[in-house]
Structures are given as C-alpha cells and as structure tokens.
Amino acid sequence: MDKHSNTKTAIVIGAGVSGLAMGIRLAIKGYSVQIWEQNSFVGGKLSEHWEQGYRFDAGPSLFTLPELLEELLELAGHSELMPELIRLDPICRYFWNDGTRFDAPANPHDFANLAADAFRVSSHSVQKQLERSNEIYGISAPVFLYRSMHRLSTYFNSDFLKGLVKIQRLDVLKTMHDVHRKRLKSAKLVQLFDRYATYNGSNPYKAPATLQAIPSLEYFKGAWLPKEGMIAITNALEQAAVRLGVHIVLNRSATGIRHKNKQVAAVEWSGGTESAHIVVSAIDVQRFYPLLSPAVTLPERIKTAERSTSALVFNWGMKSSYPELDVHNIFFADDYKAEFQALGIPGNGIGIDPTIYLFISSKHIQTDAPMGCENWFTMVNAPGIGALTEDQIDLARTHIAQKLSSILGKDVLNDVQAEWVLQPADIARRTGSPDGALYGPSSNSAWSAFNRHANASSSIKGLYFTGGSVHPGGGIPLCLLSARIASEQIQNAK
Ligand SMILES: Cc1cc2nc3c(=O)[nH]c(=O)nc-3n(C[C@H](O)[C@H](O)[C@H](O)COP(=O)(O)OP(=O)(O)OC[C@H]3O[C@@H](n4cnc5c(N)ncnc54)[C@H](O)[C@@H]3O)c2cc1C
User: Fold this and answer.
1) Which of 91, 100, 105, 382 could be bridged to 110 by S-S, CB 3.0 to 4.6 A?
2) For the residues 247-253, what does the mean pLDDT come to?
3) Of the residues 35, 283, 313, 426, which should be mutated to test ligand 1's pocket, given the most ligand atoms within 8 Å of the CB?
4) C-beta neighbour count of 270 within 10 angstroms
C-alpha cells in the first residue's frame, strides 16, 4: 500500500460473510481495502462444494432477515446484485420416529391451527407462543443485536430503557425448554420450538428463554432460499466488494499484527508485512488473539466461554428423488435431552438416534443435482471437542441411514452415488473456527450476550472485530450486523 498517499488503508482478515461486508463498508468510507483470505476461495462457512455433478452449500442453508443484505448492497450502490429469493412455505417438514409428520406453514395463524390439530393442543396457546416470540424479538433485537453492547450510549438509549421496563418479559432467568414445556404442553411441539436454540448452536435445556425470539424470524419475517443457492449471498458480497475496488487476496494467511503506541500499524504474512491504518479481524477471536503480541491477551471470560455446537455433515448425491421430503426436513430424536447432554462429553461420537437435519436445495434449484436425482445435506449436531474418528463417522453414517431408511421406507444408502463428508475438524480447518464451532461461543448462559467480544478493541486503536465469534453473534444476519456496528464505531472514532 502507498504510504505516501493520503488514502487511509485497511486490511480485513478473513473473507467470510462479515469480512466481505466489512470490506464493502470500509470501501464506501473511502478506505483502500484489502481482504486477506487463507483459502483459495471466499465465503468461509458460506461456501459451496461440487461432487460428481452435485452442488452442496457447505454451511448455512436458511436465510433470514434478507433486508440486511439488501441494505448493504443498496449502500454499496449495487442493489442489482441482490440475489433473487424464494420464500419458503412450508418452512420445514418435521418427522418423528413414531410416524408423526408435520409441515410448518410460514403463516403464524396457519401454523397455530395446524399445530393444534396435529398435537392436540389449543391453537390459542400456539398462537400466543408465536406472538410472545415476536414480542421478545421486538424488545431484545434493538438492544442485543443492532447496537454495540460495549458503549455507554447503548444503555442510555430509549430502546434500552424501553427494554429494561419489559425485562421480565424476556424470561432471561428461565431456560427455553422450561418455558416451552410450561406453555405448549405437547412434548412434540415443545421439541419443535426447542430446536430453535440450535439456530445459534445452543442447548435449549441451558439457553435462556430469551432465545424464544428466534422462531419469530421465520414465522413473522420469513425463511428464504436464494434461487441460486446460499452461495449467491457470498457471490453478491464478493462482487459488490470487487466493484468498489476492494482487493481480495486469496491464499494469504495473516500471521501477526504489529501495533505501536497502542495504535494498529501493520499485518504480517509469510511473505512480508503490509502497513494499515485499520485492521479488522473477521476471523474467530480465539484464532486472532495469538496474532497479537503476547502483551495483549484474550479476556479470560471470552477464552473460557462455552463454544457453540459443531456438526457432522454427510453431503450425499442421491440417484433418485424422494417426493415425501421437502427442502428443509428434521427427523427428531426420541430423547432430545440425552442428545444434548452427550454433545458436551469429550470423545463422544454421534448417538444411535440423532436428530437429523436434511436440506435438499435441488427441490428448488434443479441444476444442483442431475435430472431425477437430489443433493442431500444430511447434518447432525456434533461435539465440538476434538475430531471424530473414522470409526465414529462410519458408525454415524450407519445410524443416520438406518433412521432415515426406517422412516422413509427405503434403503437410502443404496441411493448414495456421491459423498462429501464435513466433520468438526474439517470445519475448523476450512474456516479457522476452533473446535469447528458453527457459531462461535454458545448462548447457553443468561450472560452470553454480555460476554461476547466487542466490535472495537479497547486497548489498540484502529483494531476492530466482526463475525460469528463476536457481538452480536453467529449466523448470516448477525455477521452482517457485526460489520454494520464495527463500521459505526470506526465512524465514531474519527
Ligand atoms: C454447517 C453450518 C451450518 C450453518 N447454518 C446456518 C444457517 O442455516 N443460517 C445462518 O444464518 N447461519 C448458519 N451457519 C452459521 C454461519 O455460516 C456463520 O455464522 C457465518 O457464515 C460466519 O461468518 P464469519 O464472517 O464469521 O466468517 P467465517 O465464515 O467463519 O469465515 C472466516 C474466514 O476467515 C478465514 N481465515 C481464518 N484465519 C485466517 C487468517 N489467519 N488469515 C486469513 N484468513 C483467515 C477463513 O478461511 C474463513 O474464510 C452455519 C454454519 C455452518 C458451518
């Protein structure tokens, strides 16, 4: 970078969703921006993989709050890059081992009526729970998601004060499961609502009931799939960044950060050092801190925070199609609690009856699989502690196939034509996420939101943080928000 020009320079480390979003925001501010990415491809967790004619989105499969992407692309002056989206209805097809099936409609009123019939509960109680979810989102999002939690101004803001008045409505001190059990009565419906804790890699038996807010995103705001697959989100961000002059440097791993007089100065890689006025870590904070000198260490409460769950994914190219399956399918375990307890035990493999999430984008995107075939993204929660052994993976494949075959009435393994496996160690290697955690730290405690790393360094000027491991948390929308908050802080620091 040209040290003599007046242009301010920025280096963003990591080209996942938040790194690309941050690159765009810095370029809009007039910075000369480089994004360094260790891989030969951009997107991080939101990337894709082709296997023998089948396309698989390698990470996320559900897109919520698309307006955050729309807002960013509009700000970049490239609204035309916004991917075309399909609004999912039903949102998900649920299966239980006893033969029960339930298609979750996108409309909350229809959901309540159908759930009442399917689970023999009153539609009023279900409707009320959905409205509660929406109310909690309305109270908590402006405070916990859209602003920095590390600035005094947040706490003197009218949204915060309004939230404070209604704090008991947030059920912070109860667990999600306890609240659902009390209000919903049917064990299957409780399991369906508990599952939303996994949307940020948390455990419904530990996570605060504030996470009841998550279903409101789907039923009140919509669940979406880009017409060209989830990868279209990464592609749109990458194209917007490039059109704004951001230089994306692939195959470059940041190996150190230099700082002087409490001001960030440069980033090191194996081939040299590049100076920068601003450095943004868009990688996991646990991975980033070792790049700083030993004098600056990760706060203990963040270092020891419980990680979100990881996953074992069998991406299967299936040689036939299954009309009884939808785009998103869940096959629940009989003992959900035992499944979560087992996830916390080091060395554990996948249980004999896991909850299986099956995403088939080829139901909507025909080019994702050969004619008459389907691309199955078959995922189970996995402990993020250490790699799974080959034997554990083989056993998991057998158990998953047995469960699916028994419910679908067909030997599914017979149809597997291509396979690409992603296990926690692969996710860790591909994305730099310690333990292969999907969403950074979990939200398993009432204090999780307060314990996430801030979006700006309190000790080194010019150093900022985005991505799933920092405030406001993991998932595509929150990663986009982390870039928005960090960008506001850069603005305020001027
Ligand atoms: C299996 C799976 C399913 C998921 N499902 C969903 C879903 O349905 N919906 C949803 O919203 N979210 C989902 N998520 C979560 C979502 O994908 C993440 O929260 C989000 O993509 C994380 O983005 P990020 O910006 O934090 O960066 P990441 O995607 O973590 O990318 C970080 C990038 O930094 C690079 N990097 C690391 N270290 C260095 C270094 N030293 N130098 C240079 N580059 C480096 C990595 O290679 C990587 O490309 C899922 C995640 C996974 C893995």
Assistant:
1) 105
2) 98
3) 283
4) 8
The mean pLDDT of 173-182, rounded to a whole number, is: 94
Cβ of 354 less than 6 Å from ligand 1: no
C-alpha 219 – ligand 1 centre gap (Å): 25
Give nearest CA residue, ligand 1 atom 14: 60
In angstroms, what CA-CA distances link 469 with 8, 260, 340, 449? 27, 26, 21, 11
Nearest-angstrom CA–CA distance, 431 and 273: 23
Mean pLDDT of the chain: 93
360 C-alpha to ligand 1 centroid (Å): 21
Establish whether residue 113 lines the binding site of ligand 1, counting it when its CB lies within 6 angstroms of any ligand atom: no
Residue 1 clears pLDDT 50, i.e. is over it: no
Residue 330, pLDDT > 80, answer: yes
Residue 44 alpha carbon, nearest atom of ligand 1:
49
What is the tens place of the pLDDT at every residue in 198-214? 998 899 999 999 999 99
Instruction: Spell out a b/e string for 352-382, using b for 16 or more CB atoms within 10 Å of the CB, else e.
Output: ebbbbbbbbbbbebeebbbeebbbbbbbbbb
Ligand 1 atom at shortest distance from the alpha carbon of 36: 43
**Ligand 1 centroid to residue 76 C-alpha, Å:** 22
Tell me: pLDDT of 150 over 70. Answer: no
**Within a 13 Å sphere around the CA of 180, how many CA atoms are in the beta-carbon half?**
28
Work out the average pLDDT over 323-347. 92
Q: Tell me which DSSP letter residue 84 carries.
A: P
Q: How far is the CA of 275 from the centre of ligand 1 (A)?
A: 26
> pLDDT digit string (tens) for 270-315?
999 999 999 999 999 999 999 997 778 888 888 888 889 999 999 9
Q: How large is the average pLDDT for residues 104-129?
A: 97
Q: What type of residue sits at position 380?
A: V
- How far is C-alpha 228 from the geometric centre of its chain's CA atoms? 19
pLDDT in tens, 440-477: 888 888 777 778 999 999 999 999 999 999 999 999 99
Contact 190, 29 (CB under 8 A): no
The whole-angstrom distance between residue 182's C-alpha and the CA centroid of its chain comes to 28
CB of residue 476 inside a 6 A radius of ligand 1: yes
Which of 18, 22, 41, 45 has most ligand 1 atoms within 8 Å of CB, for mutation?
Answer: 45
Which residue's entry shows tokens 């790049």?
291
Nearest atom of ligand 1 to the alpha carbon of 476: 11
Domains present along the chain, CATH in parentheses: 9-45+230-305+445-493 (3.50.50.60), 107-221 (no CATH)
Q: How many CB atoms lie within 10 A of CB 108?
A: 20
Nearest to 433 by CA among 10, 22, 47, 24: 47
Asked whether 289 lines ligand 1 (CB < 6 A), one says: no
Judge if the beta carbon of residue 179 lies within 6 A of ligand 1. no
